[in-house]
Specification:
The complex is a heterodimer.
Chain A (H helix, E strand, L loop, with lengths): L4 E3 L2 E4 L5 E6 L6 E8 L3 E9 L2 E4 L8 E7 L2 E6 L8 E8 L8 E2 L3 E5 L1
Parallel strand pairs in A: 2-11
Antiparallel strand pairs in A: 1-3, 3-8, 4-5, 4-9, 5-6, 7-8, 9-10, 9-11
Chain B lengths: L2 E3 L4 E5 L4 E3 L2 E3 L4 E8 L5 E7 L5 E3 L5 E5 L4 E6 L8 E9 L6 E2 L3 E6 L1
Parallel strand pairs in B: 2-12
Antiparallel strand pairs in B: 1-4, 3-9, 5-6, 5-10, 7-8, 8-9, 10-11, 10-12
Classes of the chains: A mainly beta, B mainly beta.
């Protein structure tokens, strides 16, 4: 298995532009997480999907952020409009049902908003 | 409420020396514990996990961790480190009643030649 695949690996965009980050979870995994990592705040859980349904989006910073999972093999995280404070590394992670197995992380997308 | 504390933000150690990275957790219920490693510009990779049973858990790359319920600790150890172990290490906790992983703030291990 290729693991969790995220694209793009790097994204540089201007403030005010729309940004879409993509994630392909490991086949067969039915739980998916989006995290954001910054030096100041560490790893923050943004949203959690189970069986393609958003279960907890309380970590989404504000209405500018939205996430979808149209099917079991694809998820997106969109920021519109983007702001410089959104600059961070965004990780997608997936796992099988239940917390005992641990989550598998993608390589991340480094977002820079200028 | 659940929390995970990694007491050291940075740990420098010479190559071939032993290392211990500390992790303490708080939880009122049975807890599952994990250690992840993050190499530069990479995602987090699972090193090892404690679910139940034997308190000494062995993981990949020669790492091991010991679960100590009385001290609410899950310290990570390696008897002899290599330059390639230079990375950031995260301790995480969860319980059977939740889907969330609570991550510590990370410990940056720097192995010196």
């Amino acid at each position: 298995d290729a693991g969790v695949i995220q694209s793009p690996r790097h994204e540089v965009t201007e403030m005010g532009q729309e940004v879409t980050l993509r994630c392909k979870p490991i086949s067969g995994h039915n739980s998916l997480f989006w995290y954001r990592q910054t030096m100041m705040r560490g790893l923050e859980l943004l949203i959690y999907f189970n069986n393609n349904v958003p279960i907890d989006d309380s970590g989404m910073p504000e209405d500018r952020f939205s996430a979808k999972m149209p099917n079991a093999s694809f998820s997106t995280l969109k920021i519109q409009p983007s702001e410089p404070r959104d600059s961070a590394v965004y990780f997608c992670a997936s796992r099988l049902q239940g917390p005992r197995v641990g989550a598998f992380f993608g390589q991340g997308t480094r977002l820079t908003v200028v | 409420a659940q929390s995970v504390t990694q007491l050291d933000s940075q740990v420098p150690v010479f190559e071939e020396a032993p290392v211990e990275l500390r992790c303490n957790y708080s939880s009122s219920v049975s807890v599952y514990l994990f250690w992840y490693v993050q190499y530069p510009n990479q995602g987090l990779q699972l090193l090892l996990k404690y679910l139940s049973g034997s308190t000494l858990v062995k993981g990949i790359n020669g790492f091991e961790a010991e679960f100590n319920k009385s001290q609410t600790s899950f310290h990570l150890r390696k008897p002899s480190v290599h330059i390639s172990d230079t990375a950031e290490y995260f301790c995480a906790a969860t319980t059977s009643g939740t889907y969330k992983y609570i991550f510590g703030t990370g410990t940056r291990l720097k192995v010196l030649a």
